[in-house]
Amino acid sequence: MPDYKPESRAVKTSGIAVDLQKSDMNQVTLNNLQFNNSGNYKCEVSTEGPNFDTDAKNSNMTVM
User: Fold this and answer.
1) Which of 10, 15, 19, 33 is geometrically suited to a Cys-Cys bond with 29, CB 3.0 to 4.6 A?
2) How confident is the model at residue 48 (pLDDT cuts 50, 70, 90)?
């Protein structure tokens, strides 16, 4: 299914907006960032049932 796009959800974080339209399986686009939003962030991905596999990665982000 070439046009298939899995459902995406973002947890609301104060002062940061996730642009789901510009995000995909390889990148996450964030809007409204300030210098103080620099820090360690976690991205978690879960598959659909019946297995519901989950993977998560942490990475440091510096806002310049």
Assistant:
1) 19
2) confident
Domain range list for the chain: 1-34
What's the pTM?
0.66
Cα(58)–Cα(64) distance, integer angstroms:
19
By the 8 A CB rule, do 59 and 30 touch? no
| Rounded distance between C-alpha atoms, residue 10 and residue 30, angstroms | 11
3-state SS assignment for residue 37: helix
Residue type at position 15 = G
